[in-house]
Amino acid sequence: MPLIPQLPPPPGGALLARLHAINAEHGYLPQEALRRAADDLGVPLSQLYGAASFYASFSFEPRGRHTIQVCQGTACYIRGGDKILEKIETVLDVQPGETTDDRLFTLEIVYCVGSCSMSPVVRVDGDTYGRLKPDRLPRILQKYRQADEPEPEGGEKRS
Amino acid sequence: MKIQTRSDLDALRDRGLSTLYPSGVRINVGMATCGLATGAADVYRAVRDEAGARGLELTLVATGCLGYCQQEPLVDVRLPGRGRVLYARMTPERARDLVAALASGELPAENALAIIPAEENPDPGQASGALPDVPLIGELPFYARQRKIILRNSGMIDPESIEEYVARDGYLALVHVLLDLPPQTVVDEIVQSGLRGRGGGGFPTGCKWQICRDAPGEPKYVICNGDEGDPGAYMDRTVLESDPFSVVEGMTIGGYAIGANEGTIYVRDEYPLAVERVSHAVARAEELGLLGQDILGSGFDFTLQVVRGAGAFVCGEETALIASIEGGMGEPRPKPPYPATSGLWGQPTVINNVKTWASVAPILARGADWYAGIGVEGNAGTVVFSLVGKVANTGLVEVPMGLTLREMIEGIGGGGLDGRAVKAVQTGGPSGGCLPARLFHLPIDYETLTQAGSIMGSGGMVVMDEDTCMVDVARYFLKFTMAESCGKCTPCREGTRHMYEILTRIVEGEGTEADLELLEEVATWVKAASLCGLGQTAPNPVLSTLRYFRDEYDAHVVEKRCPAGVCRALIELVIQPELCTGCGLCERECPVGAISGEKKEPHIIDPELCTRCRICYDVCPVGAIEIVR
């Protein structure tokens, strides 16, 4: 018999599912939520932290309201995806992994969103923009800036 | 309602046929991720609103991907009595015009790409000569050599409708298997078919199933590897988004054959629509009793769960994927033991790629001999490629094994982009290599591509032309594998970084001839000594470019010149004053403000400020920017 009794491991996929759920609720992984999840799942916090820090989809820092994923997959790269990235970096004055000072945009590099035939591609939140040229970017970003402005006549603010 | 008998399935089939081939108009809008990226959602809304405004009754369906992504958004229209036509490059405005024509009983010729023939359109009243100048879909060079088995339903059915899946012979195989065949016979059929793993390894699928079936230990598991991480590839995404039931049915058959009652579909996080679609398919199959307890009264129980990955390329490696499901870091472990004897939770596990699972049902429905007769000796069946990069026709292509690279790139792909000469093709993603145009006579099969220094891989095929620098491409892949190396074993963790640093020196004009020798040596050791497939194959892009494009390396190292005009330290951008019209576009687009000039006067680039990003080169409407190599 082991000196320290072992809990049975949580069912397959449960840990990732929980991390995704926390991420969906907060937009990142707050420490408190991770501690609660470790207790609920019966795993050491270190294991949960190990997994969370292993994967690119999770962040321990609060993120911007919109996430811009610039695809650097092979097809995008050889059709100018690097220039798209450079243009966004300059326009927003952030590097990949950073969030703008107004907390509106977080910039990320992603290796392939699977829209290679439309390369180069950028995904903002859930929307994918294909066959991009650098000069189209300011207009696309403007769309998300406007979406966050309060609508006239006291309309609801969209999130 | 639960499906218990063959006649229950027939009822489902009838419902599917009634929506696939309704008495009124049916319009399919291709709305997989690629279609959505070019505005298919706006086209869908335009069709719906215009039809509503005109009182036209229609069956409007958001389908998956037909593969011809270059022509997206694609709209497939079936007008009973008149025929079925595929329209290309649709916009909301064009869609409204199309609906207006349909409302008056016409299939217009504007934007018509191809006629979909009678076998996809059981409609005896079809007037085939309606559009004399529009070719049949099988006559388009893009489709002429294709044979669709894995993609049989992609773009043809509503991916959320099990009825339409059944109407196109879905679940016939499962019924046959569960009611007529003992499990061992199912394994035998897969062995005989010659099916090999479509994830890229090419291991005989039937053999894997047999090992797992014979392995001691209960329970056993099946897993679908949908962690399609290769950048430049989207075959698996398309199958999961466009025809998720084909994977669900294949896995159910696999579970029965090897004696597993549980399966997991692992899909990468970057594919939200695929996660949604396949989760829906699992829920729907459960509702109808095609998953769950005592399926079709056979006594066989089988359940499926969907696990969403979290952005780690290494999880495409099977042992890493299993570790990820078990709940931790997705780090690989040494093999053997292989998952077939010791996989998920240490139990015998069959793990196959999405396309392998999607091939299973047709093989069981039509017989091993039918499948074995497609392709070439030792490489049976079909293979799916995403043909992308600097090629005229981009898209998803399914061909019999053994087609040559030239038939693929020049025949189906239509050659280089904008008529430029193709220099190389990259297959197999970061694990594969770059093959030069002079090897395009080679047939596409597992052994030939491996011997040539690349791999078949999962199906990425990226075409490159004279404007692509092969040294830069090698560096690009090493940057990727360096970032995605999990760090568990030293050869991969340190070796990929070392190779990346050498390649960086070379593209920055700091490389020496000794660097090339060192690069080759490191590559050889990383290949030999790494723990898992990621590290063992990471040097392939380096070794293959050194083998076939040594002259480009030499130009960088000896002449300090980048022949393709890509590597920033080795080029300069200048504006040719005699061509410049002074439109100011480059000045506006330059991200660093390096361009200046008076309106309507020739502009100049300040070489001190210029970062050589080449945005000006791309946007200049008159081609006045010259790259000095």
DSSP helix fraction of chain B: 25-40%
Going across the biggest sheet of chain B, name each strand in turn: 2-1-3-4-5
What is the number of beta strands of chain B?
20
- Alpha plus pi helix count of chain A: 5
Instruction: Report the radius of gyration of chain A as a whole number of Å.
Output: 19 Å
The CATH architecture category of the largest domain in chain B equals 3-Layer(aba) Sandwich
Sheet bearing the most strands of chain B, described? 5 strands, mixed
Helix content of chain A: 40-55%
Radius of gyration of chain B: 26 Å
In whole angstroms, how far apart are the ends of chain A? 53 Å
CATH topology of the largest domain in chain A: Glutaredoxin
Describe the structure.
The complex is a heterodimer of chains A (159) and B (629). Helices cover 40% and strands 11% of the residues of chain A. Chain A is built from five helices and four strands, in the order αααβαβββα. Chain A has a four-stranded mixed β-sheet with strand order 2-1-3-4, covered by helices on one side. In chain A, helix 1 packs antiparallel against helix 2 (31-41) and helix 2 (31-41) packs across helix 3. Chain A is elongated and about 65 Å long. The termini of chain A are far apart. Chain B has five domains: 11-144, Glutaredoxin; 162-371, NADH-ubiquinone oxidoreductase 51kDa subunit (Rossmann fold, 3-Layer(aba) Sandwich); 376-465, Ubiquitin-like (UB roll), CATH 3.10.20; 470-557, de novo design (two linked rop proteins), CATH 1.20.1440; 571-628, Alpha-Beta Plaits, CATH 3.30.70.20. Chain B has a five-stranded mixed β-sheet with strand order 2-1-3-4-5, with helices on one face. Chain B has a five-stranded mixed β-sheet with strand order 13-12-16-14-15. In chain B, helix 7 packs parallel to helix 11 and helix 18 packs antiparallel against helix 19 (490-507). The radius of gyration of chain B is 26 Å and the shape is globular. The chains are: A alpha+beta (159), B alpha/beta (629).
